[in-house]
From TrEMBL:
The keyword Repeat applies. Residues 1-97, 98-194 form the Lumazine-binding domain. It comes from Marinobacter lacisalsi. Lumazine-binding repeats lie at residues 1-97, 98-194. The lineage of its organism: Bacteria, Pseudomonadati, Pseudomonadota, Gammaproteobacteria, Pseudomonadales. Its EC number is 2.5.1.9. This is Riboflavin synthase. InterPro entries: ATP_synth_asu-like_sf (IPR023366), Lumazine-bd (IPR001783), Lumazine-bd_dom (IPR026017), Riboflavin_synthase-like_b-brl (IPR017938).
Length: 204
């Protein structure tokens, strides 16, 4: 499990693509992977991956074809910057909301507005995921737990403070980019349960 509090930004050092599998070598900031073990879980842009090897501050991860298809990991290349979070431990503070690291879908950035001291990003998700979008609800974008601002059909926005921009790759994101989305599990459960009972959410 993860908390949605991004612990920093890492960089893709290299990758090797083979039939059905891509191996990523990712470099992390000094001391951020201290104590990591082979088999540990790390969220890369919100996608839970397993550590397969380590050398200093570099970690190796394998991503299957299905993972590449369902997420934006297939778009990464050497030099790409990514958000990362190591798996939560019992007793850790949950500063965001609980995440599984299983990406549900991707979204496209449709606008970026950056007035002084804040930034508003607007995203568009596939229509099938619109029913899980609620103003002031939780959502994870590239592994970061964020509060939804406004919702209009299958579009929603988030408002980011300077610290969030500094600590994540949101400072890099521009209109047209794709991001990973994990909807809030509690919201998904409630919406799906009501739908099974015949109380489907009216579509705008």
């Amino acid at each position: 499990m993860f908390t949605g509090i991004v612990q920093g930004v890492a960089t893709v050092e290299s990758l090797e693509s083979r039939p059905g599998l891509t191996t990523f070598v990712i470099g992390f900031p000094e001391d951020s992977v201290a104590g990591v073990t082979i088999g540990a879980s790390v969220a890369i842009n919100g996608t839970c991956l397993t550590v397969t090897a380590q050398e200093g501050n570099q970690l190796w991860f394998d991503a299957m074809q299905e993972t590449l298809r369902m997420t934006t990991l297939g778009l990464l290349e050497p030099g790409s910057r990514v958000n990362f979070e190591r798996a939560a431990r019992i007793g850790d503070e949950i500063g965001g909301h609980l995440l599984s690291g299983h990406v549900h879908t991707t979204a496209r950035v449709v606008s970026r507005e950056q007035p002084e001291n804040n930034c508003t990003l607007t995203f568009e998700v596939p229509a099938a995921w619109q029913k899980y979008l609620f103003p002031k609800g939780y959502i994870a974008v590239n592994g970061a737990s964020l509060t939804i601002g406004d919702v209009a059909d299958n579009r929603f926005n988030v408002h980011l403070i300077p610290e969030t921009l500094r600590a994540t790759i949101f400072s890099d994101i521009q209109e047209g980019d794709e991001v990973n989305i994990e909807v809030d599990s509690q919201t998904q459960t409630i919406v799906d349960t009501l739908a099974r009972m015949g109380y489907d959410r009216p579509q705008a």
